Amino acid sequence: MRAQFVLSEIGVGLRRNLTMTFAVVVSVALSLALFGCSLLMSDQVTTMKGYWYDKVNVSIFLCNKSDAESDPNCAKGAVTEDQKKKILGDLDDMGVVQKVTYESQDEAYKHYKDQFGDSPLANSLTPDQLQESYRIKLKDPEKYQVVASAFGGRDGVQSVQDQKGILDNLFKLLEGMNWGARAIMALMLVVALMLIVNTVRVSAFSRRRETGIMRLVGASGFYIQAPFIAEAAVAGLIGGLVACTFLVAARYFIIDHGLALSEKLNLINFIGWDAVVGTLPLILVTSLLMPALAAFFALRKYLKV
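The structure assignment produced for this chain is given below.
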């Protein structure tokens, strides 16, 4: 009988404050959708770091005849065979190096033509203008400075470049976007909590006569508060379900189908469905508990039971 009364009061409360209930659902849905997106974006950045950092190389570019005339780092002339052997031997002795690949001037020219063959500059270049290089795969990409300090400024070395630095700029941008999404999410959560508190307050005020009678006949405080808390929880849960639907639809239509970014951007290792599905329970639990707790504390002030 008591459960039936609570359920009936939930329906009455939701119908009486339909507009505010709708506002609560929308704000909760938006805030939790952003919450889920921020979690998934963090997973995506972590996945991309693991994928790309494993592929980055450190490149040691060697001086050629053109560099000897124009580059201060190559003032002592083009690299000699003895210098190349010394560099290769030192690389083999370094514990941080996993693999070393040599690229000749002809190979560098071929790679350049493959990538920039349509540019006007490509037709004016010759192989002897490009540099020989050693492409180094490190056991730990974070150890770039060990190679840079060992070979930077050495005779015959024009420069030491780390591809990881380029990726770091990309990941900083993604992290910045993620923090922006979190800031908007926090703002939306505040809006949602304010709407929940106001909805509970209006609902409690509109039923103050009923709650007064219940108080006179000896109803417990929890029994009086239960319908209001349940109303907020139901509205929040609906918003959580909408947020979950949005995340699933976004993953399906943006990554897998529709825009099909997984096919168009095959250089990006997108997170799988397991990450999305693993986020949904957290969103649903948050959508249920957050409004319920907000309603509970609001009732302590406005219901005075």
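Interim note for the steering committee: The beta strands are 58-62, 97-103, 133-138, 157-162. The chain has a mean pLDDT of 80.
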